[in-house]
UniProtKB/TrEMBL annotation:
UniProt name for this protein: Outer membrane protein (Porin)
Listed GO biological process terms: monoatomic ion transmembrane transport
One cellular-component annotation, GO: cell outer membrane
PANTHER family assigned: MAJOR OUTER MEMBRANE PROTEIN P.IA, PROTEIN YDDL-RELATED
Source organism: Colwellia chukchiensis
Amino acid sequence: MKYRYSKIVAALFSSLSLSVSAADVEIYGKANLSLQLSDEGEGSFTEIKSNASRIGLKGTHALNDDLTVIYKAEFQVDLDGDSAKGDSITDRNQYVGLAGSFGEVLLGKNDTMLKQSQGKVDLFSDYNADIKSLWKGENRMADTLSYKSPKFNHLQLGVTYIAEDAVDAEDGVSVAVFYGDAKLKKSSIYASVAHDAEVKGYDITRATVQGKVGKIILGAMIQTQEKVDGSAEMDGYMVSAKYKMDSITFKGQYQAADFKAGDDKSGITLGADYALAKSTKLYAFYTSFDMDTDADQDYLAAGIEYKF
């Protein structure tokens, strides 16, 4: 474990030397820890959770007026200290590529276009209420070639090709069309349509929209999925809303999954964030899952997030 830490530290600090040669390097991260009361069907228990805390470096290096290198190396760090041996640091998005008038091309490990297409609609991403709790498609894949086109009238095309990496495996493709700005700073509406073909054994179609209505930000998502053999069909939808009042942001989200085999699942989450500064917030949320034939789940948490 000490060796793994030393490798990451060495990589981060050695990157600083790149700044001497006109490269733009940023070391960044997020520490997110919560005290949580969890009930997953066999009684409640308390835990300290590290909610996708991370550290990484990213940057660009202009080769000339028309071509720029893009790179990122990001690692998830479990700050609660209870990870299995050797799993306290794991890989997140890690890639290198080129950007220019043609768009950008990246090679490495990256979120698929379908995963990226959710934008900021999932208000409880990285927590128990993350949409991946009920749906497939939130994939970060190794061995990928990703392409994003330039934007034309707020429209952008994205394609992820996932190499099979084995003789008996199959290639996967994830395609998305994006409209607007996911942060809703450059446009008042964000929308996307995405499709996965043979990605981790599933074919998935997802449509997403989010927009501002006065001071309220509303979002919605629909998804259909099935295994590549045609089984495990599911139709689902999710709606979310948030409202900011001074330093407090109130949030709510509902997600449903209707499986053709008859197993219906749903989850509702209510929460609030309190901003101490641009970098730091306190938060609390309550999540309840109705899992039909499986055990119901409930989570109550309060925590702190610090970004640097």
